[in-house]
């Protein structure tokens, strides 16, 4: 049973996001914090992009006023504040990748300072592998990786926000099932804040979350995963947070893989992400987003299922998921730089008809 204080925090988070987002939209326009269209982007008109500030206020105010203040929460808020400022600086002025990376490292170190870190990994053969001095670099690597993965999928209206909301709810379910109830409450409050913001961010969007929003959400999801999902001693517990955050992780992994295979820099941006491929097979903007929501929901449900299975059963399920993921990625072409969909009208039309049937706009 969720306590009344957490329900109140969730309602407050949702309400704050609904109320402050239109105001922040006006401020962004007046201050010139807008996203200008280019050949890589989907939108056709300049769009205000300070939505991360609305997400920050909607999450931080309720958790600080209503939830009990402890060291992990202090680290979550302090680190998230650093990430927000970093994102706002990029939304307004644009900052170099090296400065952005440095800011993310500092945010992750703040988490570690307040006791939020990965202390061990499960051993596939027996027991646990205690990280010792490697705990800090492993935690930093995880936080930076997830933070940037969420930032990377922010390519369609409502995509990163909706995906983050689904991931946050899944984190809450698994964390509470594993006895990390306070972490689950934080995740539910974050999900409520995102859902309030999604009212203005879903297609056709009135405001973008910008780097301030995508980095802030990615940071919080990464931190909550460390706080609530890395406490188990079974091999399956290692994969639960990866499944929950599967869409941003996989999209990032496939981007690195295809760029490396094609001889390009892994940091070179392209139009070959999952959402680009779904648009390419004929889905509308809204349909592509809904398909990715569904995929994220399936991965989240799989993560919840894994916590209920034996290790042997979980390994079988994981192998099946990995095979399906790589088969689907290959069919859609996200593993290759040159789309295999061109010149294959039968495959394209079939995928398009099937997906449109179930995710009609």
TrEMBL record:
The keyword Translocase does not apply. Mg(2+) binds at residues 151, 211. One of its GO terms (molecular function) is phosphotransferase activity, for other substituted phosphate groups. It holds the Pfam family Glycos_transf_4. It is found in: Cell membrane. It is a multi-pass membrane protein. Its cofactor is Mg(2+). The chain crosses the membrane at residues 6-24, 50-67, 73-89, 101-121, 127-146, 158-177, 183-200, 212-229, 235-257, 288-309, 315-334. Keywords: Cell membrane, Magnesium, Membrane, Metal-binding, Transferase, Transmembrane, Transmembrane helix. One of its GO terms (biological process) is cell wall macromolecule biosynthetic process. GO terms for cellular component: plasma membrane. InterPro entries: Glycosyl_transferase_4, PNAcMuramoyl-5peptid_Trfase_CS. The keyword Transmembrane helix applies. This is Glycosyl transferase family protein.
């Amino acid at each position: 049973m969720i306590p009344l204080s957490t329900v109140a925090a969730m309602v407050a988070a949702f309400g704050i996001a609904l109320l402050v987002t239109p105001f922040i939209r006006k401020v962004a326009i007046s201050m010139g914090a807008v996203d200008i269209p280019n050949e890589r982007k989907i939108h056709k008109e300049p769009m205000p992009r300070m939505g991360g500030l609305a997400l920050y206020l909607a999450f931080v105010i309720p958790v600080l006023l209503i939830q009990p203040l402890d060291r992990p929460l202090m680290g979550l808020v302090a680190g998230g504040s650093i990430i927000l400022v970093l994102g706002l600086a990029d939304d307004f002025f644009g900052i170099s990748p090296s400065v952005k990376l440095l800011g993310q490292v500092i945010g992750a170190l703040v988490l570690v300072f307040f006791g939020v870190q990965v202390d061990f990994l499960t051993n596939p053969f027996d027991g646990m592998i205690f990280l010792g001095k490697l705990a800090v670099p492993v935690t930093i690597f995880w936080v930076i990786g997830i933070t940037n993965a969420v930032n990377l999928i922010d390519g369609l209206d409502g995509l990163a926000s909706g995906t983050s909301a689904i991931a946050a709810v899944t984190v809450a379910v698994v964390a509470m099932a594993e006895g990390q109830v306070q972490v689950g409450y934080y995740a539910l409050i974050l999900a409520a804040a995102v859902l309030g913001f999604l009212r203005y961010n879903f297609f056709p969007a009135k405001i973008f979350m910008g780097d301030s929003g995508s980095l802030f959400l990615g940071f919080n999801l990464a931190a909550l995963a460390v706080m609530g999902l890395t406490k188990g001693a079974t091999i399956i517990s290692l994969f639960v947070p990866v499944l929950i955050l599967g869409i941003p992780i996989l999209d990032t992994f496939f981007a690195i893989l295809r760029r490396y295979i094609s001889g390009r820099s892994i940091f070179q941006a392209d139009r070959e992400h999952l959402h680009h491929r779904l648009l390419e097979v004929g889905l509308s903007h809204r349909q592509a987003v809904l398909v990715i929501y569904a995929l994220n929901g399936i991965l989240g449900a799989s993560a919840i299922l894994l916590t209920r299975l034996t290790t042997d059963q979980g390994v079988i399920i994981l192998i099946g998921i990995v095979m399906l993921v790589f088969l689907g990625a290959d069919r859609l072409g996200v593993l290759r730089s040159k789309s295999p969909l061109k010149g294959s009208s039968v495959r394209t039309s079939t995928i398009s008809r099937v997906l449109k049937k179930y995710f009609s706009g």
